[in-house]
Amino acid sequence: MPVTEQEMLSLRTEVQTWYEDSVTIIRRTIAEDAFGGEDETAETMIATGVKCFVESSPGREQLTPFLANLAEEHLFIIYLPAEQDVKLGDFLVLTSQGSIELRVQAVLAPESLDIELMVAASTLGER
Question: Which residues, other chains included, contact 116 with Cβ-Cβ below 8 Å and sequence gap of 6+?
């Protein structure tokens, strides 16, 4: 029997009770100049005070190939509400952990039963 919309909403609400951290999501946009190069960059705050759950040293087998590419970086796995707007390359500021700045390296969202959004982020990259 498929999960109803009400049951899905209930599951999403239930999982968020475990979220003990908060994050600000910032998206950087780059404008092109008249010659096709990069011009000014603008940062747009997508959301602030978003409740989340942070793992600073994930041990998940399905992430092993991805983690191999980031072996030199400190990787964080961040769980966000399923409907949160976050994209590859966005910057996250963990406001509940001393304003640590991270860059989104992957957004891992299952196509079925998306109760929460899992984001891999690291200290890699500058703003």
Answer: 12, 15, 16, 79, 80, 81, 82
